[in-house]
Fold this protein.
Amino acid sequence: MSGDSPMGGNFKDVLMANAEAVEEVLDQLMPVDGSPEGRVTEAMRYAALAGGKRIRPFMVTASASLFGVGKICALRTAAAVEMAHSYSLVHDDLPAMDDDDLRRGKPTCHIHYDEATAILAGDALLTKAFQVLGEEETHSDPAVRAELVVEMAKAIGDEGMVGGQMFDLMAQDRTLNMPEITHLQRLKTGKLIGFSCEAGAILGKAPEKARNALIAYAHDLGLAFQIVDDLLDVEGDEKEMGKKVGKDLSAGKETFVSLMGADRARAQADMLAGQASNHLDLFAEKADSLKYLAEFVIKRRT
Amino acid sequence: MSGDSPMGGNFKDVLMANAEAVEEVLDQLMPVDGSPEGRVTEAMRYAALAGGKRIRPFMVTASASLFGVGKICALRTAAAVEMAHSYSLVHDDLPAMDDDDLRRGKPTCHIHYDEATAILAGDALLTKAFQVLGEEETHSDPAVRAELVVEMAKAIGDEGMVGGQMFDLMAQDRTLNMPEITHLQRLKTGKLIGFSCEAGAILGKAPEKARNALIAYAHDLGLAFQIVDDLLDVEGDEKEMGKKVGKDLSAGKETFVSLMGADRARAQADMLAGQASNHLDLFAEKADSLKYLAEFVIKRRT
């Protein structure tokens, strides 16, 4: 890697600038009118414009920048990914699911509104995500748009994120072993992270080798990301995180940390993040921002 | 119209044959494996393969047949529409929404499984619907596939079906007037019916005049469909319908029937169905099946 130290404040600025640009697009994509049903659009905005590091959108724009993809194309795709991510948080937080009251330091959607509105807001966010990917403004080539739709659907449907959440709920009354936890996390968080990185290659009609490198990067970084999430659930500060911590422990849930111990988990995350970055060597310094991201993911405290 | 009387059994046979063909495609599109997360796929199948008249899928295949669209293309699009419709039923039936225990004579998805599984199954059906529309097998032209994705999303998102459900929930503690009920139903049921009819024109790259005729047909028939739904809620037989009746009345909800009275509502539905059929005159006898459908919609008892 060249240039400024990623952790010296510079990378965080880049991340935040990207988050702001994505939020601007999200804001434009969800205009509120005075209609009575506008409540659901307000709830969508509440869920999707609630701040956050916007790591997945960053993966989209950073991977897109490797192939000279236009800014609007990348940002719209990033916004669609964030809508899909936000929908999953809204539904996961519901009483029938993980029953969470706090998210990013604010009441969750069903607490701020009500359950019905939260269910509908999630549904509408998911729907809008696909709409945005399908629209002409996202890419001039409809084959690219259709591919984005299909690949995101595979990443977040019953064979992806939703399947992971199902597995997670079913596993609550039994002990998972390491291959099972890895499978669960691969589905629940790994696949959407995978799509976020692959999206740049799809937008840029990248050669297969480049696309596979991004998939491999996402594969390793996704797992590192999850291990750090588990570590933060044990070691994190509730106030700083803006959500409950110690949840897995009190629920008696097995995690990477409960199975490996914190030290080994931390070493594993470091190793995976390094490995993730190595997959990007073929892009030389053009991939610096994704490498900085890998470092950021394992050093983050929230 | 020419040929057999639509109500003489012949049209119902055509409708059922189409339903079977759509169910075969649905079955293929949702294979179950032995994975632990397979429970969500099972719940998707439970919801989407629960029988029913499959009126929306029929609209897709009948409108597609006007333009010589290939059978597989039409059936896959029809299956996607049915997935979207099924998802909406699963979520609408949830305790936080309409809280229904019975659907098509069977326990609703959250009763048969549980709330969390029902929420996830709905999410996955919605996701899969977009995946199917985006996949190459649905149409060789990616521009058509992207257009299907965008138009369906508009029909079922916060400015369509989801918005309608939001409006419906918000209206539960106040009295709606006729323009409001019309607006509500236009969103809640009208827009997806509109897409179902328009889909054939999109698949067939139909000229604008033909497309507009189908939109106008769907517009009128969608309203007739809803009025008949309201009539059946008052006059229908619970056993025959396979769901609770008298719900609107006991909830003190205004409907077309409560505002107009049953006789005027019936006359209005007849008028709208006739008007719907008239929009199709430019297709001559090629549109007979859609005209039969209009008649079927107002004469149905379930």
User: Anything to note?
Assistant: The longest strand of chain A covers residues 102-103. Chain A has a mean pLDDT of 93.
